[in-house]
């Protein structure tokens, strides 16, 4: 009895899911549960389709372009903010990337984050701020990083020991950042996959397992 009910629920859920996937935005599919309007997807997973460009809205109100989505692993990749003259990220005035604590989205553990133009106090942190840190390659080899050349920079893997809801920049701290998804130590710098990978908690997770 219980098993049958559970199966019917699952079939029903996947049926509803299929019905409620949102239409394509530009060239990107918008898989369930991501939601670009109130008639499709799950409203808890709100993203935005602005003029054919799929975007993620941070808690501070900054729109980050969504570059790719992998619904099978509940992940999407957003484009890091551009780094402007004087080595400042375009979201600097908002303090960088911030997600709501109660958002189903969080920053995944596969991002290597690089911080630029940091103040000396960063040296007290466990980040890799040595002269052979990968952030030096970004400053020296990538045009976008050239405004940050010769500033104090640091890199770190955004793993589970660090908050998964924020990448912080500020005047007097570090003023710019970028991120590379799944950076392999031996990979040439021109093959880096720039992005900030976010993951989402699957919908109805509690619902399925508590057996409502
Ligand atoms: C919308 O996108 C088109 C094509 O990319 C572009 O030409 C146009 O300027 C954009 N409009 C706005 C309001 O951003
Ligand atoms: C910093 O990163 C570089 C390049 O990956 C590595 O060779 C070096 O050992 C790291 N240093 C520290 C202190 O972790
Ligand atoms: C670095 O940060 C300081 C403030 O912390 C800022 O005044 C300066 O414009 C930034 N950029 C460079 C290239 O120093």
From TrEMBL:
Membrane topology field: Single-pass membrane protein
Subcellular location as annotated: Membrane
Signal peptide: 1-21
Cellular component annotations (GO), alphabetically ordered: membrane
Domain Wall-associated receptor kinase galacturonan-binding: 22-77
GO MF annotation terms: polysaccharide binding
Keywords: Signal
Coiled coil location: none
Superkingdom, natural source: Eukaryota
PANTHER family cross-referenced by the UniProt entry: WALL-ASSOCIATED RECEPTOR KINASE CARBOXY-TERMINAL PROTEIN-RELATED, WALL-ASSOCIATED RECEPTOR KINASE GALACTURONAN-BINDING DOMAIN-CONTAINING PROTEIN
Name of the molecule in the record: Wall-associated receptor kinase galacturonan-binding domain-containing protein
Lineage: Eukaryota, Viridiplantae, Streptophyta, Embryophyta, Tracheophyta
């Amino acid at each position: 009895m219980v098993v049958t009910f559970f199966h019917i629920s699952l079939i029903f859920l996947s049926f509803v899911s299929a019905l409620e996937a949102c239409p394509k935005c530009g060239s990107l599919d918008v898989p369930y549960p991501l939601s670009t309007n109130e008639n499709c997807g799950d409203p808890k997973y709100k993203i935005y389709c602005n003029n054919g460009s799929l975007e993620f809205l941070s808690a501070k109100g900054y729109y980050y372009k969504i570059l790719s989505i992998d619904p099978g692993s509940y992940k999407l990749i957003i484009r890091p903010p551009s780094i402007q003259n004087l080595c400042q990220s375009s979201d600097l005035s908002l303090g960088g990337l911030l997600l709501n604590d109660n958002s189903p989205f969080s920053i995944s553990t596969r991002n290597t984050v690089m911080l630029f133009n940091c103040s000396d106090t960063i040296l007290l942190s466990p980040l890799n701020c040595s002269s052979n840190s990968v952030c030096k390659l970004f400053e020296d080899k990538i045009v976008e990083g050239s405004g940050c050349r010769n500033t104090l920079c640091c890199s770190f893997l955004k793993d589970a020991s660090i908050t998964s809801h924020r990448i912080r920049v500020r005047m007097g701290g570090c003023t710019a950042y970028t991120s590379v998804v799944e950076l392999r130590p031996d990979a040439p710098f021109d093959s880096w996959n720039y992005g900030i990978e976010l993951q989402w908690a699957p919908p109805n997770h509690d619902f399925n397992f508590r057996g409502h």
